[in-house]
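U., I forgot to send this yesterday:
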Amino acid sequence: MDNLLIALFIASNCLLSLLAAGHALLFKRDSRSALVWVTLTLSLPIIGPFFYWCLGINRISRRARSWQESGRRINGTDIYPLEEQHGAGILIPAVAAHLRDLNVLSDRVVTTPLRDGNRITLLENGDNAYPAMLVAIRRAQESINLSSYIFDAEGIGSEFVEQLKAAADRGVEVRVLIDALGEKYSRISPTKAFHGSHVRLARYLPLRHGAYINLRNHRKLLIVDGREAFTGGMNIRGRHLLSETNPGQAMLDVHFSVQGPVVADLQRSFLEDWFFVTGAKLDLPLFFPIIEPVGNAMVRCISDGPDKEFRKLEQIIMGALSCSTHSVSIMTPYFIPERSMISSLITAALRGVDVRIMLPGLNNLPFVQWASQALLSELLASGVKVYYQPPPFVHSKLLLVDEIWSLIGSANLDTRSLRLNFELNLSVMDSEFAACVRRHFDKAFLHAREISLHEIENRPLPIKLRDSFFHLFSPYL
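Result:
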């Protein structure tokens, strides 16, 4: 009898491992990721399949797509008006004529249209962004929708808590959406901080749902009265205040004030997330006032995540690299892109495009920096220029192409942002805004150190082995 039980136990473990390995082979698009999971599930019975069940399966895709269909229509009405389904009616300026193919690509992979008549303002660090956001909150009359990956309820976060509570007390509808994992960064739970107030708070994918622990909402968004928005790479966190933070703990970052018709698309992104989490039906006219043009920027909202059929953001970035003719500037804290994007960067440099990548000299996640260093030799050998910024740690995410097209938002150039996280970005076609982004880059280049191919190739052998080892795990970093 004991032998029979042992045989059944072994057989069931083998079957479980084979099922997990087969699932990875069928559904993992990245061959390295599939190989790691197949090896893990077959070499570690029980443990391997368990981890694959928790971290390897994208359960949210099917659930999200079904919810999206209902989420786009609440009370029988589209979440936001779609008079312009595509950007075909917008005339691309002559200076950006070579980017028309990029607009065609964007129309095909992104459902939101290219919208004209917007104004985007760059706000450096929390010292400039947070006061502007708090002023907007104090001015709010009808609605406030706030989404943040991290909401530290201490320090500057406590001021946000108080102002949001005050707005709710005077009759403004206030909703706050926080990622359940990002919430753990705060010593004082935002849930407790808002407890007993009129603020409606929801947590994105609570950690009790272990199957979703690897899929996080990384979006940062504030929308006030459906007319003004703030988005970018900045969480609600004291470390973004350079004036009040120890330089060793500070984070440099950029955020953006957004005005104009594209605010409706940002509102829609928030409401779809809110409906996904809560299932709550909302009074739509409150959130979508008529917005008149206020500027010259043509902007497209790019909402991306593991629930999408296409890797929208990755496709658009690669399209921009392919269309570039003279310059590409990238600033990102975490640089572990897919092989296809590495090839696009190399190809652009070989075509004569001035490709520059700005990375933190000292990363807050050392293993990410080690994995990133394993990529640099090939890039440098092809003519790509790489720079390291000195501390404080730079958390900014910027892409500038040909001094006319910019990409701003929450996404890093790594697998986590491009495949696993829910991200929110804006593509901006506007020479005036691009000049502002260029000035930000130029100021950073003044203090940065250019990395040479000789420096990378002459790293000690143990360092090369360490970097290459961590690069093996780049799909999971």
